Amino acid sequence: MTFNNFIEKYKKQNLIKEQSSNFQGIETIIARAHEEIRIAQANISIDEGTSFTIAYTSMLHAGRALMLAKGFRPNNGYQHKTVVDFTAMVLGTKFKTLTQHFDKMRRKRNLFIYELSISISETEVNNALESAATFIAAIKNIIEKENPQFKFKF
Question: Is 116 a residue whose pLDDT tops 90?
């Protein structure tokens, strides 16, 4: 599926809508995603599940920044899944394993938040943090490549 077909399909399903943005807002979201990685790392010894959730949230924020850079935002109750699908479309096959991990993290985080019957290991948190850092870097690179006038300050 092409990007344009994806956009038309998701607009028709009312999953995304157009949203104007500016680089300062995008940079603020990406900076927050970076900060969340630091926060997640600092909390591993306190609570692995919370650290995992924060690592996931950092990816969600980066994905939303990518959507804004492309002129869109999620529009309904499937916002997290829509961000995952959008980033998978934009990042493409080169990052397929990474976006699949993002989706697995989304589902695991959902279980952790709503079921509370699962545990998350330190290894899972470390893998999540590694994925989050790679994911954010990939998104920063795409945004800067497609918008040469934008240069992140961090």
Answer: no
DSSP assigned state of 63: H
d(CA 79, CA 140): 21
Strands (E), 20-145: 72-74
Q: For residue 113, what pLDDT is reported?
A: 86
Q: What would the pLDDT profile of 38-84 be if each residue is shown by its tens digit?
A: 999 999 999 999 999 999 999 999 999 999 999 999 998 789 999 99
Tell me the percentage of the chain whose pLDDT exceeds 90. 85
Angle at 146 between CA 144 and CA 152, to 5 degrees: 15
The residue among 56, 36, 34, 52 whose CA lies nearest residue 44 is 52
Q: Are 46 and 30 in contact (CB under 8 A)?
A: no
Single out the residue of 35, 41, 65 nearest to residue 140, CA to CA. Answer: 65
Give the CATH class of 3-146: mainly alpha
Report yes or no: 17 and 72 within 8 Å, Cβ to Cβ. yes
C-alpha closest to that of 51 among 130, 136, 132, 129: 129
